[in-house]
Design brief:
The protein is of the alpha/beta class. The chain contains 2 helices and 7 strands, in the order E-E-E-E-H-H-E-E-E. 14% of the residues lie in helices and 28% in strands.
């Protein structure tokens, strides 16, 4: 039985992944964010197109059914959710909080 499986993958060579600090509060530095990263919506559209099993016209109609602005990812030691961010539109950037790194280094 598979713990997880790959539904889709895209070439990440042109994607810039950077990290940001988690929001922490109190003396114990408790993490107070949802642990989700932000991504250029174009990256999430590419993932949605790669994962579809149906031939669809992505021109306009039906796009909202097929293209989500969130995705669960596994990339190197990163694991978690990415949310589409209008401020990153067209940048080919992904920004992830430190809590998304589960193992490995920050070098991709």
């Amino acid at each position: 039985q598979l713990f997880s499986s790959v539904i889709a993958s895209i070439d990440t060579d042109s994607i810039q992944i950077t990290r940001t600090n988690d929001f922490r509060t109190g003396k114990l530095a408790v993490i107070r964010d949802d642990g989700a990263g932000e991504a250029d919506p174009d990256i999430l559209t590419a993932l949605a197109k790669a994962s579809t099993t149906l031939k669809e016209d992505f021109s306009d109609v039906g796009l909202c059914r097929s293209v989500t602005q969130s995705a669960q990812i596994r990339c190197a030691g990163l694991k978690g959710m990415l949310l589409g961010s209008p401020r990153l539109q067209g940048t080919r950037k992904v920004v992830v909080p430190e809590s998304m790194k589960k193992f490995g280094s920050w070098t991709f």
